[in-house]
Amino acid sequence: MAGESDKPTLAQIAAQFINAIPHSRALGMEIKDVEPGLVRITMPYDARLVGDPRTGVMHGGAVSALMDTCCGAAVISHPKAPVTTATLDLRIDYFRPATPGQTILCEAHCHLMTRSAAFVRATAWDDDTDRPVAAANGVFTLSNVKGKN
Amino acid sequence: MSRKPVEPLHIVKQRRDAALKALVGSIPYIEFLGVEFDRHGDELTGIMRYSDHLIGNPVLPALHGGATAAFMETVAVIELSWRFFWEDIEAGKIDASALTPETMPRLPKTIDFSIDYLRSGLPRDAYARARINRFGRRYASVHVEAWQDHREKLFAQATGHFLMPARDE
C-alpha cells in the first residue's frame, strides 16, 4: 500500500471502519486490501460459526455478514464517499458450501455512486479461487450528516 | 367406534419441545447469534437476544445488517426444517429425545437470500417469523419478517429460496 500519499490514509480509514464494528470484529474479519471503491476482507473458519453440524460447513449468515461489511466498506472507500452509509437492500446467491477449515475472502466493488444511492457487487471465495462460494448485489444509502442515515 | 385415545398434554408438549430443542441446539451458529425460538403449536417465533457483539454501527447505535440477515436466514431454515419433520415427530417416526447431529434430518440449503432493510435495528431484542409460500419436494420459497418493539413496524424483511433435502422413503 506504500507509494501514493493518499493510500495509507484510505487503508487507515478502512481499518478503523472494521475495528469500530463489533459484529465484524466478533467474526474475526480483517481488511486485506483497499482501493478507491474496492475492498477485500477475510473471515477465518470458526467452529462457532458452523451452520450444518453434519458437514461442518459455516452458516450462510456468517457469509452474509462478511459480504455486507465488505460492501459497506467499498462504499466508504469510494472517492465520493458519504459520511455514513447503511444497507438498503442486499441479495446473496449461494453457489456452493464453503469448504470447512478454509478462510473466506470477499471482494466488493462499489461500481456506481449516484446522489441518492451506492450500488455494490461482491464475490466470496475459499481456497479454490476458480469457484466462488457466493455473490452479492447491494444498494446502500448515503448520508452526509453524522449519526443519521 | 373406537377413537384414538387423546394424548396427555404434557406428553405432546414434551415431544414437540424436545424436537425443536434438538434441531436448534444442533447448530452452533444459532448459539453464537444468541437466537432462541418460541413455539405455539407449530408456529415458531425467532428471538435474537441483544448482545453488544451484534452491533454494526456503534455511533447510532444499530444492529449489524449481517446479524439481521443471519437471524432471518436462520429463522427461515428452522421454519422449513420444522415443517419438514413435523409430521414425523407427530407420528412418532422420529424419536426427538434421541436425535443427534448425525441422526438429525438434513437441513435445507440456501440458494439465494434477499434482504430488505426498512429501518435500522435498535440495540435490543429482535423477533422474526417466517412464512413458507411454497414448499415443494425440491424447492421452497420463504418470506421472513423481523420486528422489534412493534409487530407492525418491521425493521427488515427477506425472501429466500431453498433446496430441500431428499426425503428418506
TrEMBL record, chain A:
InterPro entries reported in the protein's UniProt record: HotDog_dom_sf, PAAI_dom, Thioestr_dom
Keyword Hydrolase: yes
Signal sequence bounds: none
The keyword Hydrolase appears for this protein: yes
GO function term, MF aspect, one: 1,4-dihydroxy-2-naphthoyl-CoA thioesterase activity
Domain spans labelled Thioesterase: 56-130
Keyword set, alphabetical order: Hydrolase
Superkingdom as given in the UniProt entry: Bacteria
GO cellular component: cytosol
NCBIfam families with a match to the protein in the record: unchar_dom_1
Protein name as annotated: Thioesterase domain-containing protein
From TrEMBL, chain B:
The protein, known as: Thioesterase domain-containing protein
Residues covered by the Thioesterase domain: 63-153
Signal sequence, renumbered to the chain: none
Provenance organism: Pseudoruegeria aquimaris
Organismal lineage: Bacteria, Pseudomonadati, Pseudomonadota, Alphaproteobacteria, Rhodobacterales
GO molecular function list: thiolester hydrolase activity
Superkingdom as given in the UniProt entry: Bacteria
Pfam families: 4HBT (PF03061)
